[in-house]
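Response to reviewer comment R2.3. The reviewers asked that we include at least one raw input/output pair. We reproduce the pair for rRNA-processing protein las1 here without editing.
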Amino acid sequence: MSRIPKVVSWTSTEEYMTVAESLYSSDLTQRKRGVAIVKAWRAHSRIPVAIDATANLVEMAVADEEQQRGICINRLRHMYTMALVRFVNSIVDLEQKGMYAQSIATLASRIGMPVWFVELRHAGTHEHIPSLAVLRSACAQALHWLGDYYWKKQARSLPADTQIHIREALARYTAARSALKSVDVKKRGGSKQQESAQAEFDTAGAGLSQLASKLHSDAVRLYLVPVLIEPGFLIPEEKKLRAKFPDCRLSVGFTEEWSAVFNMFSDIWGRILFYEELISGIVAALTPTSSDLGMFEVSDNNLSTGHAATLVAWIRWILQHHYTPYITAATALATLDMNNDDEVDDENSNSNDDSDVPGPINIDDLLEGCLRNPSYYSRSVLKVVSEADPVLKQELKPFVDYMGKALSALVAIDSDAKSTAAKAPQSAISEKSLQEEEQIFRHRLESVFGSDSSRRVDRQAALDEETDDANADTDDMDVDNNSTDKYPTASSSHKKEATSQAADMVERTEMASDRWNYVPSSSWSMSPIGTLSDGSVPFLDWPAWLDEVPLQPVPM
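Raw output as returned:
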């Protein structure tokens, strides 16, 4: 009997528990994130009323804590009251069963909800709205009650990670299979040992079949295939048993051992669905995303050569045993038509022969993944497809040839670069090279901001102009007050200050030309990364006075 799967908004148990932790987190950002995810769940499908009530109460508490948009006290009280009223109504209404309606207080006591929540709901609905302090306390206690009533119970009843269960079941099955195989090879243990090994193998197989029958078809892609392509299952632990490029072929005994498991999964989810998902998972593991890595590049966590060759070999095996090329399918149909025309009496036998013809497996995802993400591994997969399908071989030949030429060119460039780097002498860092580099940067700065001499002349002209203005103002003040003999003028002090500033600027410019000095390597000392040579942490804060400095040069 087919089971109708229950549709939920979360994709996995891990996501569900992560949202629970976020809603009850002490961090404000995490709580806001949990509320946002629950809102996304609402848009997808219906969610349990306990989750909806928790999100409403958390959102209300976050709004109160942030005081968003200047919420007034009266408005805040109304929002709290509405959230609490909906919390009580949504939880209690689930217990409203039978022909006659029961009171809310009776239903609340039945599920263990504090009665004062019901009284608070009655006051907020029919009487005066409670004070803000009472509402805040009620919100906190309601969240605590929901945590005990719903979230903690769900955490205890929800299954653990599905992938862990699948990995454990497959490990038990493979271990029992190996034990049975070793007993058959030795042929020493007698009938009791063989019977024990056979019984253990049958138990492991039944457990794996029972676990697989409980999983939805989406679990094939999400959980089963990632475990199957791990080392220890479809990838032998011993590297010498793995396939090798360019042949990419597996031993007959190894494929026969897994054929029984594949048949079990095919009976549960359907042969086409299982093998298509297995091929898609293998291609996803073999082909990195070119948009992230660049064409023909390999990620840092790439598969080993033997691992990748074994995955390609499994694609070859699947295509050989469960894929029907287009030309072969047409020929088979034509042959069946001819048999039906010539032998009308053998219609039943012909129909039985037709059932042995493999059904079509869609490899569009395989082709798209390999063509969008060209690499050495994807080229090997395309060559395997070309061997299995003569029609696609002609269409894929230009792509396979292009990938081969591009990979050869990249290998040649890489080898040339390595040989050139090995032959090139290592340039030693010296004080002269540092000074030459500094001179280059000085020329670049002068091309943008002007030379040091021109800036000094402009600065000196500006200082002289300020000095003349100050002298003129002083002379006017002296003439107006008729006190030239009593008070000294400020011209002499201004001139001294301008001369001192100009001298300091020249001195800084002269010192800048020799500020880089090469320190001999013999005096170098080890220090932690990010610290100075003496082990101290540098002060890298942005000074406040730099905020007033313009980013673009301002003409003098």
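The first helix runs from residue 13 to 23. The mean pLDDT is 75. Further pairs are available on request from the corresponding author.
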